[in-house]
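Sequence and structure are no longer studied apart. As an example, we show below a sequence and the tokens encoding its fold:
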Amino acid sequence: MEPRSLLPWCAVAESSPRVLSGLADLISLNPRSVEVPQPFSLRNTIAPVAWARGRWPNVDWMENTFVWVGWESGRLSARTVRQQEQSGTISVSGTGLSENDMGWLESVLGVAQSLGTFDCQTLAKLSSELTGLCPFANGSLFDGVIGSIVGQSISVAAAATVERRLAALVHPGLSVGERIFYPFPRAQDLAVLPPTMVRGTGVTWRRAEAIVAISKAAAEGNFPSVSRQEADPDTLRRELRSLPLVGPWTAESAMLWGLGLPDIYPTGDVALLRAARLAYCSPEMTMAVLNRMSLSWAPHRGWAARLLWTNLLGSAPG
């Protein structure tokens, strides 16, 4: 492995974690109230954060607070979000610029999207039980692709652990109390790494090579640069499938977790099959049966998947 002093620290020169503050201090840093469309439930929305139990590099659910660390307009930011139950007002604090609040809330917490209606009684029931669920996402298609390649054929906990190691290669971290957060690596950060170093995080050789190759392409401007509002799923599927090691599941997962698109279906997802077997009380359900069933969920297949996963794995604890 290369000496840490030679690693690309981006905008950060030091090689040890930067100490920002404890969580309580971060919550009290530049607090402001933001009105969000109703219904909205922070606990239901950020459930995928809680599923990894503190392993994700850049996000966590701590003391009923969502904590996020990442890049905004080229600067490192730390944000917290809190919500009183049944309230249409959420509290946002941290070092993120207040003028970016709504754009960030829309791209990461999906507050501008509304859950569609389902003819399926099972999904309609879950919709009523998981009121206020919105599509949590990375807010970046690039993040979605890299995260999906890391997560191929492994558990959520394992994927989060590998992502954490990957992020730690290119940034010393930001300490919030005793917890160290690492912003998700940018394309220019990963593009300069040798595949041998990426391989050391626990991914296979082929995945390590694909991560570096895709990062180089993105750093050179050869990667789809779209927002949720601009995204055309069919076009994105074709473009993503041209990238190394991006098959059907990876492309769908990248759009689902990168941009939070509403009608994305990650065929072949084992956890989704487990979730469907539970929700439909059908322990013998096969992937083929689930794939056929999913056709009736359109144009809300992404929402359906989130409802099923959250029913299986649970909301963030309160």
